[in-house]
């Protein structure tokens, strides 16, 4: 039906590469199944001790076997050297009682490991225990990626996990309402002259008087994945609109040589920190341009990223390393590699630049082998750690890149990084009550902290690296058909887009909840347009951000359908379309395995 074709738009342009599982790995004697089980055991060692010793606090303190209400990473990574954490990040949720962010963060990992009963239990706990109407200062960035992202992902996966869903799901549901409520609390931060948000917001009162207007680039550009998903599911465009406006404001304020800095004043649009690079303070802005382009099939976001990519290659790349440079002059300011930058090879693989991605990955892997982890900062010319930045808080980024690159290449070296990660995390950081952050990679001193991203990201990417048959890796050969108030809808067909906290979003879900008749992509219209095409005429599938259509070479027989397409497009013509490569149309169309001939 119409819904089945509607959902195809998200999947047609996402590549799915299939190779026999474990290619090359067996030859090197790496037992993938046994490492997968060790990763599963790591998750439960950490998760069970969190529930036993720390719940309902935000995080586990593994050395003292208790909990604390600290609020994750301070903004997107450690920020500038010596910069204090932004104000208001020390306790987000939830007074008068604690609420555990680790539960939201670890929820979809439970399902990826196949634990439906615990997933269902946690969903019930969250529905009963969460209240966002509290007088607390929260990081806008962190609340979005962990709370909004975690709730959206859990909402979209809940039917797969056997949760009884409402009749209107995925266009309604308790977890979606919670995600929307949390996101609404963040909207006051976006009310600035530039559309770039403040970094901190009070959940009850909005932006505090006297709040600093300086926000890091990632804290401005890391909303489109969650906010566009919310807009598409709820029908309220405000979320996607503010996220797009913030992205475009950063683009408008790039330097003449095409670079963005680290921190900007959201009132005046003046760059406060002018270091340009791919790491802390900037990282997920670039990530969300690519992932937003894939999720929304949006050509404008992708072309923005590709322009940045050129400037990054021209000014910051040296011998497959990336340095920090002055954003206006391009002169090197810090010749360091930050562990947060290790997401970059995975991002390059998403745009198909696999050779460059592998070369950079192998550089980063040499650092891992030198220390048994990635130090927060690594001085490239000296080949050693940077003072006071010798720690490894069990970050996921290098493992994340290995997971993406392994899907693309099946190179066994990537499994070897996974093996090394399991071995060193178990050897260095495993303690009786969980896994402790490594304070110093030189002498293996530990910190009394287990960040929630360890369960949300590090363990998840490790497991997915070693689990080639996981449902997350679905290539579209299996799917679920769901009946919604707006027609039929295909879900769980693969092509998942991970937010920057590793919460997977099903791109097909964005096409389930069309509220307006004129925006519906009806199968009859589509088939009529396909069959009106002459044999072997070129055609292009185009996908707008809110519906799909087929266009062909202009001819009199196409005029009426083209006019209808224009009418449908007029409401949302503000951003351009992303085209898949043109191909000959040979009187045959296969849709999810069913073949239609032009005489049917």
Automatic annotation (TrEMBL):
Superkingdom of the organism of origin: Eukaryota
NAD found in the keyword field: no
InterPro entries given in the database record: 6hp_glycosidase-like_sf, EDEM1/2/3, Glyco_hydro_47, Seven-hairpin_glycosidases
EC top class, as a word: hydrolase
Region forming the signal peptide: 1-25
Keywords: Calcium, Endoplasmic reticulum, Glycoprotein, Glycosidase, Hydrolase, Metal-binding, Signal, Unfolded protein response
Compositional bias annotation for Basic and acidic residues: 555-568
One GO cellular component term noted in the UniProt record for this chain: membrane
Residues at which Ca(2+) binds: 500
Subcellular location, record wording: Endoplasmic reticulum
Cofactor: Ca(2+)
Keyword Manganese listed: no
Similarity comment: family membership: Belongs to the glycosyl hydrolase 47 family.
Name by which UniProt lists this protein: alpha-1,2-Mannosidase
UniProt gene name: Edem2
């Amino acid at each position: 039906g119409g819904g089945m074709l509607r959902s195809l738009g998200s999947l047609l342009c996402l590549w799915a590469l299939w190779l026999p599982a474990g290619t090359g790995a067996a030859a090197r004697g790496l037992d993938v199944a046994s490492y997968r089980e060790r990763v599963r055991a790591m998750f439960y060692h950490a998760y069970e001790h969190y529930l036993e010793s720390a719940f309902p606090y935000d995080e586990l303190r593994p050395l003292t076997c208790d909990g604390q209400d600290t609020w994750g990473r301070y903004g997107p990574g450690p920020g500038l050297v010596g910069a204090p954490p932004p104000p208001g990040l020390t306790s987000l949720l939830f007074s008068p009682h604690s609420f555990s962010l680790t539960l939201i963060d670890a929820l979809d990992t439970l399902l990826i490991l196949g634990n439906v009963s615990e997933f269902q239990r946690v969903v019930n706990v969250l529905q009963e225990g969460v209240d966002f109407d509290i007088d607390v200062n929260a990081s806008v960035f962190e609340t979005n990626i962990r709370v909004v992202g975690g709730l959206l992902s859990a909402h979209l996966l809940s039917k797969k996990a056997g949760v009884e869903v409402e009749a209107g799901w995925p266009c309604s549901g308790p977890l979606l309402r919670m995600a929307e409520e949390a996101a609404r609390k963040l909207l006051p931060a976006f009310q600035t002259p530039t559309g770039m948000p403040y970094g901190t917001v009070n959940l009850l009162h909005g932006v505090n008087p006297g709040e600093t207007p300086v926000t890091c680039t990632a804290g401005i550009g890391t909303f489109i994945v969650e906010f566009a998903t919310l807009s598409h599911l709820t029908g309220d465009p405000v979320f996607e609109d503010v996220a797009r406006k913030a992205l475009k404001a950063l683009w408008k304020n790039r330097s003449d040589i095409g670079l963005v800095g680290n921190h900007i004043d959201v009132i005046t649009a003046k760059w406060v920190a002018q270091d340009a690079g791919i790491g802390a303070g900037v990282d997920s802005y670039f990530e969300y341009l690519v992932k937003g382009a894939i999720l929304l099939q949006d050509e404008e976001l992708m072309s923005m990223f590709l322009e940045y990519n050129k400037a990054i290659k021209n000014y910051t790349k040296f011998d497959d390393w990336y340095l920090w440079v002055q954003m206006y002059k391009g002169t090197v300011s810090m010749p360091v590699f930050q562990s947060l930058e290790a997401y970059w090879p995975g991002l390059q693989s998403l745009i198909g630049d696999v050779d460059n991605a592998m070369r950079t990955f192998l550089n980063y892997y040499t650092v891992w082998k030198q220390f048994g982890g990635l130090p927060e900062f690594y001085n490239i010319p000296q080949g050693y750690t940077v003072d006071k930045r010798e720690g490894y808080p069990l970050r996921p980024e290098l493992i994340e890149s290995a997971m993406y690159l392994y899907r693309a290449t099946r190179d066994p070296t990537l499994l070897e990084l996974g093996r090394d990660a399991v071995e060193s995390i178990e050897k260095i950081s495993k303690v009786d009550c969980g896994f402790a952050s490594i304070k110093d990679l030189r002498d293996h001193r530990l910190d009394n902290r287990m960040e929630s991203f360890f369960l949300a990201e590090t363990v998840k990417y490790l497991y997915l690296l070693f689990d080639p048959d996981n449902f997350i890796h679905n290539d579209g050969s299996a799917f679920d058909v769901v009946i919604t108030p707006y027609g039929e809808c295909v879900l769980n067909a693969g092509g998942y887009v991970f937010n920057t906290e590793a919460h997977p979003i099903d791109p097909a879900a964005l096409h389930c909840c069309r509220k307006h008749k004129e925006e519906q992509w009806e199968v009859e219209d589509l088939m009529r347009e396909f069959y009106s095409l002459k044999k072997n005429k070129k055609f292009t599938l185009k996908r707008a951000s809110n519906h799909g259509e087929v266009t062909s070479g202009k001819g009199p027989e196409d005029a009426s359908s083209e006019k209808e397409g224009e009418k449908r497009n007029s409401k949302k013509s503000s951003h351009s379309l992303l085209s898949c490569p043109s191909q000959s149309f040979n009187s045959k169309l296969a849709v999810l395995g069913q073949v239609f001939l032009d005489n049917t």
